[in-house]
Amino acid sequence: MSFSRPSCLLRRTIPEVCKTAYQLRSRPVTTQTHRLALFPGDDFYSCNGHVACDTDNKPNSVDLKLLAQLQQDGSAPTAHILNRMVSSCAKSGSVFLGVQLHATVIKVGFDSNVYICSALVDMYGKCGAVSSAQRLFDEMSHRNVVSWNSLISGYLQVGCPKIAIELFLEMVKVGIAPTHFTVSAVLVACWRTEETKLGIQVHGLSLKCGFCYHIVVGTCLIDFYSKGWKIDASRLMFDLMPERNIITWTSMVAGYAHCQQPVAAMVLVREMQQWGIRLNYVTYNCLLSSFSSSNDLDHSKQVHCRIIREGLESNSYLAITLVKVYSECSSNLEDFNKVCSGVTRWDQISWNAVIGGLSNLGHGEAALKCFFKMRQAGFDMDLFTFTSVLRAIGMISSLEEGKQTHALVFKMGYGTNLNVQNGLVSMYARCGLITDAKRVFSSTDGHDVISWNSLLSGCAYHGYGREVVELFEKMRRSRVKPDNTTFLVVLSACRHVGLVDKGIEYFDLMRNDYSLEPPTTEHYSSMVDLFSRAGYLSEAEDFISKMPIEPGPSVYKALLSACQVHGNVEIAARCAKKLLQMFPNDPVIYVLLSNVLATVGYWDNAASIRKVMSDRGVRKEPGYSWI
Fold first, then answer.
1. pLDDT for residue 58
2. I need a surface site. Which of 8, 67, 322, 387 has the fewest CB within 10 A?
3. How far apart are alpha carbons 180 and 177 in whole angstroms?
4. How many Å apart are CA 550 and CA 39, to the nearest integer?
């Protein structure tokens, strides 16, 4: 069976499958009558009935003593009771007990019962023993749709979505009509493998079979399209659904969060409240995860207040998400510490969130102290811990702790993880050990754009501009495509070593690559600084006038600083005028213009600028040093 045949196979079998599905849907079946026909000797007033009631009340427990009692009394367990007990094993993940029940099934002669065997396949799959599930499935003389669904979900459970898709295609090929459970499972497999085209065909299949708008299938389609960045298709599916539950609404909120549309997520949540749907902690968690910048701080605080009002502030999942949100949206360490005090359950995830949050806020020493406390508390580290800690070490250039952490990385078995390796490259580069950074970079298998950016930014930060250009050319020859951050680092390196022509070449390369986002103000500011440092002030001013976006203050300040170096009063006056129109209370503008005038000997004019600054009540904050 080939994985490259999905489209033709689906086109060939959709009519037959739809016909079978409609026959199944139109067949009148009474649950009780159907059960009695399957298990005619079922006596619910015997010990069997006691087992049935026990599994109803405690669905995650299996009492083998009752099974033993049945056998001692000479009363063989019925197929129905065995089925119920196997299902309980699946829910509780009790694979050892499930194997014993499997042996009992064989012993009493129910090994050819398709319903019990399907339950056993489901049990093995949910317990992670998918090879046993596959073996049992292959031995089954007769298989129904439940058998196929159980094995498909088993492979999804252990992270093998491609095999799950192959099973689905084989199932359709042999003429088994899929159910809404089949379609929902396959849609999950499609987005995990990024098989967008196949997912769309499965959507069409569900539409023809008549359960496209089933609440489970519809919710999975919302997930499928949103995780594939097709948020408009996801919203259309949401609007077409005749029935929605809290999971459907939450999936749509999660879709907006995934596509980084926090405003749309907020609007949808308000719509939920208008419909009288009570938000649960999962909905709030998804909504909070959509906030990732300082522009979202007000929304974050509103949602935080709502969580407190609903009495959910003690929820451990929400507490951790709030820690993450405040570290990304706020620069206030006091607010962050208050949120951290609300964490009541300290586990690996909680420690990782706090360490990562302190790193995001730029408090490297505090992040390291938190890491030490985590180790003293006896919690294991994972790749998220190490990436955050390595980032914190790079911030404070704490080389000794960096080497110790590197040794710990190898000891814990994360030395080959790409994310951790990227963190090591960045850490050594920030600490000035470019040779060690290159050594880690060379030992990394399968570099990604973050790997290259970490090494490039480290070289640029320490003044190795020409080496940055050489590395960038190697990156262009590799299969890794540079992003906006890469170009920003390279332009910064070019301006520091005066490579004007190379800078222009790379900027044009970025601007003409339509697969990249358009250059930002930072890129234009780097280009202006590139021209200005080389003495091309007129070219820099002309470059600003032709910018397709509104020049920010950093653009004009770069030119104004260069005017001080080159003593160009005329251009400096024009830059200062435009800056003062935008930011009349920025003290840096007055100081820069005053310094330009003083540099060329216009002391009276420089003094008058300082006086204007004083009269307007604009004060420059005094600088300070680490020494």
1. 44
2. 8
3. 10
4. 77
Q: Measure the CA angle with vertex 73, ends 69 and 74; round to 5°.
A: 120
Q: What is the 3-state secondary structure (H, E, C) of 64-102?
A: HHHHHHHHHCCCCCCHHHHHHHHHHHHHHCCHHHHHHHH
585 pLDDT band (50/70/90 cuts)? low
Instruction: Give the residue-averaged pLDDT of 565-586.
Output: 77
* Per-residue pLDDT tens over the stretch 351-360: 999 999 999 9
Q: What is the DSSP string of 461-527?
A: HTT-HHHHHHHHHHHHHSSPPP-HHHHHHHHHHHHHHT-HHHHHHHHHHHHT-TTSPPP-HHHHHHH
Residues contacting 587, CB < 8 A, separation 6+: 613, 618, 619, 620, 621
What DSSP assignment string belongs to 133-167? HHHHHHH-SS--HHHHHHHHHHHHHTT-HHHHHHH
Token pair 């110790």 is at which residue?
Answer: 404
327-336, long-range: CB < 8 A, 24+ apart? 327/356, 327/357, 327/358, 327/360, 327/361, 328/291, 328/292, 328/293, 328/360, 329/291, 329/292, 329/293, 329/294, 329/296, 329/297, 329/300, 330/294, 330/297, 330/300, 331/294, 331/361, 333/361, 333/363, 336/361
Which pLDDT does position 14 carry in this prediction? 38
Distance of alpha carbon 586 from its chain centroid, rounded?
Answer: 38
pLDDT digits (tens, 9 = 90+) for 434-491: 999 999 999 888 889 999 999 999 898 888 888 999 999 999 998 889 999 999 999 9
Residues 133-145: tens digit of each pLDDT: 999 999 988 899 9
Which structure tokens are listed for 163?
Answer: 């095999």
Count CB atoms within 10 A of the CB of residue 396. 17
447, 413 contact by CB (below 8 A): no
What are the residues whose beta carbons fall under 8 Å from the beta carbon of 388, sequence distance 6 or more? 352, 355, 356, 359, 367
DSSP state of 296: G
- What average pLDDT score do residues 28-47 get? 33
CB 534 within 8 A of CB 569: no
